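Box 3.1 A note on notation
Throughout this textbook, protein chains are presented in two layers. The first layer is the amino acid sequence; the second is a token string describing backbone geometry. Keep the layers aligned when reading.
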Amino acid sequence: MFENGENPMSETRESPLLDPNIGQYAQAEEDDDSKSLASSVRTNRLPSITSGQEIEPFPRLAWARDASDEMLFHWLCTSRFNAQTLEDQRNACVAKYNPFYWLAFLATFLSLWVGREFHILVYQGGPVNLSERRHEYEVRVHWVYTTTGAMLWVFVRSLLSIAYDKAEDIGINTVALSVNWVVVACYCAANTALLRMMHLRHLAGTRMLIVCNAVFSACMLASFVVYTVDVWWHSDGVSTEEGLYKAYVLFEKGTAVLFFLMATAIYSKLWSMYKYDDRGLRRRLVETIPAVLCACIMLSLMYLGLVYDSNKFRPYVWATFT
């Protein structure tokens, strides 16, 4: 399974356990970023920050590059393709000369890089624990970091829209901005809470956030179905241009819904991964508070945007995710 019969996860490093400049575990971080995630050595560590023997001048950007490639190859390519090394995968025609791949890579790279930078600020830049499993790695890197980064780019877009409206002397839609910022803040907080629960190996907190994500996805799916039926019901007499626009909106919303449904399926694998430990009930309840708050806020927002007075708030909720 491993090259030369050596398991890279068995290596130890001489570094302090905690490093406030990097993340939760400096030792884990060093192991994390000093190993290649080439398919021939399928570990649960992050991709390397080095290329050959040369030290990368911008290690965090190099990490995001490698992690983005590994993520796309993992989810989009066959197991036979993933049996190759990372460098061979990059040099394959399906990736190297594919404009669609580079568009996907750019979006993934920007989201993954920004998302990890955010989580580094809250000491979540490395593995959730010193024995992080492959599935925990996928949840942390492929889903949490990426969605946090995407939400932060949505926040940046809202700031740019404010600047544009000011320059053009256009009134600012405060309701839209408020919904946008609340969604972004709650989603980033929920992702932070999930990584915290995974770090604590907290059974109840992890399950609570999985349920919250499932309800959130169900609300999005229900809203999408209602919108699709409405478009179909009023399709008579629609011009070609308007029909194409509605088809694009359906595709955009459908993609967002599929993404959240996949996230729920991935998170659900954590359902039975953690067990109850010897921590007291009071401590477990206190540790669950952040997860409870994030879950309540997100579910309240979904009720506000997709159920209560939905015609007023629903477009703004959808606009944040699409």
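Residues 1-53 have pLDDT under 50 and may be disordered. The chain is about 65% helix and 0% strand.
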